[in-house]
Structures are given as structure tokens and as C-alpha cells.
Amino acid sequence: MKKCAAQIRQLYSVQLSFSSTVSSDAVILVAEMLKVFVEEATRRAVKQAGSEDCDTVDIEHFEKILPQLATCALLSGRCFQHALLRSPIKAS
């Protein structure tokens, strides 16, 4: 988690051209949300591959689930509430 948080902090410093700060709690929260997003994408891609009787998950399976996943994340976030409950933020 610390490696992911460091990468997010670096991303913020590169992307922001003005002087700003991001709290460590915000970085941890964003890192956790990205982790949950990737876990949910993986879960859905595995399910998609299974529905197509495939033994392996390929990039095409991710491409098929991304529109639904992105819509869910942007519009409601409710899809991720159960995932957040399964993956609590750990204090460091």
C-alpha cells in the first residue's frame, strides 16, 4: 500500500502545475479506491471470461467490462461499497 501511495503522490506532483498539497489521508484513500477498482475489474473480467467458456482472462475480457465498470464508478459508486467493506483501509 505504501508503494501505491507514493506513486499517487508522485502523480499528483507531476500533474499539478500550481502549488498544492495533498494530505496523507487523501493519498491513502485514493490508493485504496484504486485497489478496489482494480479488484472489481479483475472480478468482472474473470466472470466475463467464464461466461465465454475461456480458461484464461484476456485483455478483451477487460475491454468488455470497462464501460459498465466506469459507469458504475462515476455515477453511483454503490457497486464498490461492498468491496470497500471487504477491504478496509489499514492504519500504518
UniProtKB/TrEMBL annotation:
Pfam families membership: CENP-X
A cellular-component GO term for this protein: Fanconi anaemia nuclear complex
InterPro entries: CENP-X, Histone-fold
A GO molecular function held by the record: DNA binding
Highest taxon above the source species: Eukaryota
Record's subcellular location: Nucleus
Gene Ontology BP terms: DNA repair; kinetochore assembly; replication fork processing; resolution of meiotic recombination intermediates
Major location (coarse): nucleus
Record text on subunit structure and interactions: Heterodimer with CENPX, sometimes called MHF; this interaction stabilizes both partners. MHF heterodimers can assemble to form tetrameric structures. MHF also coassemble with CENPT-CENPW heterodimers at centromeres to form the tetrameric CENP-T-W-S-X complex. Forms a discrete complex with FANCM and CENPX, called FANCM-MHF; this interaction, probably mediated by direct binding between CENPS and FANCM, leads to synergistic activation of double-stranded DNA binding and strongly stimulates FANCM-mediated DNA remodeling.
Family per similarity comment: Belongs to the CENP-X/MHF2 family.
UniProt protein name: Centromere protein X
Organism of provenance: Anabarilius grahami
